[in-house]
Specification:
With 382 residues, this protein is an alpha/beta fold. The protein folds into two domains: 124 residues, Aspartate Aminotransferase, domain 1 (Alpha-Beta Complex); 252 residues, Aspartate Aminotransferase, domain 2 (3-Layer(aba) Sandwich), CATH 3.40.640. It is built from eleven helices and twelve strands. The strands form three sheets. The chain has a seven-stranded mixed sheet with strand order 2-8-7-6-5-3-4, with helices on both faces. The protein has a three-stranded antiparallel sheet with strand order 9-10-12. Strands 1-11 form a two-stranded parallel sheet. Strand 3, helix 4 and strand 4 form a beta-alpha-beta unit. Helix 3 packs parallel to helix 4. It is globular, with a radius of gyration of 21 Å. Bound molecules: 4'-deoxy-4'-aminopyridoxal-5'-phosphate. The site of 4'-deoxy-4'-aminopyridoxal-5'-phosphate has 13 residues, from helix 3. 4'-deoxy-4'-aminopyridoxal-5'-phosphate (PMP) binds next to helix 3.
């Protein structure tokens, strides 16, 4: 099987991640941050080490501001709903995943906020200007993806962050598709809240998300409960990370995340990016030579595009192409990729797109095979 669906979740994971998860389950699988016995303390110390590593990796000023959640969607819901105030205004980009668009739209339907959608252009200046034009006196937050999960566009996060900072607006970034592939520095990029799942570019198992806060923002909580701290009070703790970490965290996944970040540091994020880009560019160039293959973006390269490729075979639904690829043992994702806004922007709501998303563990030979099979399918369908 050629697995080109790493934007959904990375598979395979580094062997060090397997070992770390296994070690956590076999050797110290107690509940971290609860009991005082040595196994619980060992578990707590792994969680703490991972918090420190993640904070350093993303330029988060304090390790306690790294909050472990269930997935990227939960991190984004916590940030968006935690910031929203009755009567406030939000701005999101036209490339947002439903993990951003739906909570924001839900808040609007509940009469809590209003929001506008900023267009994304191939020029950074135009994109920043489109956000700027939408700012109102009551704009509370800009929520923006770093990389589109469908078309690979890289948004000018640093410049949008600067705009948000100058305007006193909270800046929330969805790094689901960029974490582990592009450098992210919360301070340099003026990011107030950074959200992501851990199971994609960070190579952790599923069931773990991260929300990093630049400071102890006055965020409302989405859920409350046991934190293993301040248990004599019914009031949710106001200190980080306990304020946002109610309930037992996913210890084996956190151990896996720790190993995943270590692995990325050892390979080098730039090398990971370059390897993925080599494969995506190869496929892009080959598809460009063919009649009847629809490509939606310029040739993927930084700073505008990350290594992710959406295409269609003219007149054929993306689901059909994905099914034929699966029959040839190639795993891709078709359809709308939980990204209604992005597909509306590119006019692909009717067909969806076939998305190819290789990872460090794929090879150029696999990319060559994918091109060969796409050509074969195209011929079969014509
Ligand atoms: N944002 C983007 C851009 C994504 O690609 C995804 C995952 N497809 C998410 C948010 C949500 O992540 P999760 O599925 O872990 O909740």
């Amino acid at each position: 099987m050629i697995y080109f669906d790493n934007a959904a979740t990375t598979f395979v994971k580094p062997r060090s991640v397997h070992y770390a998860v296994n070690r956590a389950m076999r050797n110290y699988g107690a509940n971290p941050g609860r009991s005082g016995h040595s196994l619980a303390l060992a578990a707590s110390s792994v969680v703490y080490e991972c918090r420190c590593k993640v904070a350093k990796f993303f330029g988060c000023p304090k390790e306690e501001n790294v909050v472990f959640t269930l997935n990227g969607t939960m991190s984004l819901n916590m940030a968006i709903k935690g910031v929203a105030k009755k009567g406030s205004h939000f701005i999101i980009s036209c490339l947002e995943h439903n993990a951003v668009a739906r909570p924001v739209d839900t808040l609007k339907r509940r009469g809590i906020i209003e929001y506008d959608v900023a267009k994304v252009y191939n020029s950074d200046e135009e994109t920043v200007e489109s956000f700027k034009k939408l700012i109102k006196s009551n704009t509370k937050a800009i929520v923006c993806t770093h990389v589109s999960n469908v078309f690979g566009n890289v948004l000018p996060i640093e410049k949008i962050g600067q705009l948000a900072r100058e305007s006193g607006i909270t800046f929330i970034v969805d790094a689901a598709q960029s974490a582990g592939i592009l450098n992210i520095d919360m301070k340099k990029m003026n990011i107030d809240i950074l959200c992501m799942p851990a199971h994609k570019g960070l190579f952790a198992p599923m069931g773990l998300g991260i929300m990093l806060c630049s400071s102890s923002l006055p965020l409302e909580t989405l859920i409350e409960g046991g934190t293993g701290s301040a248990s004599s009070s019914l009031v949710q703790p106001d200190f980080m990370p306990d304020r946002f970490e109610s309930g037992t965290v996913n210890l084996p996944a956190i151990a896996g995340l720790d190993a995943g970040v270590e692995f990325i540091n050892s390979v080098g994020i730039k090398n990971i990016f370059n390897h993925e880009q080599r494969m995506v560019r190869y496929m892009y160039d080959e598809f460009s030579k063919l009649d009847g293959i629809e490509l939606y973006t310029p040739r993927p390269k930084l700073p505008g595009f990350a290594p992710l490729l959406s295409f269609n075979i003219a007149e054929v639904g993306s689901d059909k192409v994905a099914q034929l690829l699966d029959e040839e043992n190639i795993a891709v994702r078709a359809g709308l990729h939980c990204a209604y806004l992005a597909h509306s922007h590119y006019g692909t709501i009717g067909t969806g797109t076939v998305r190819l998303s290789p990872s460090l563990f794929n090879t150029v030979d696999e990319a060559k095979n994918v091109v060969r099979i796409v050509k074969k399918i195209k011929k079969y369908l014509s």
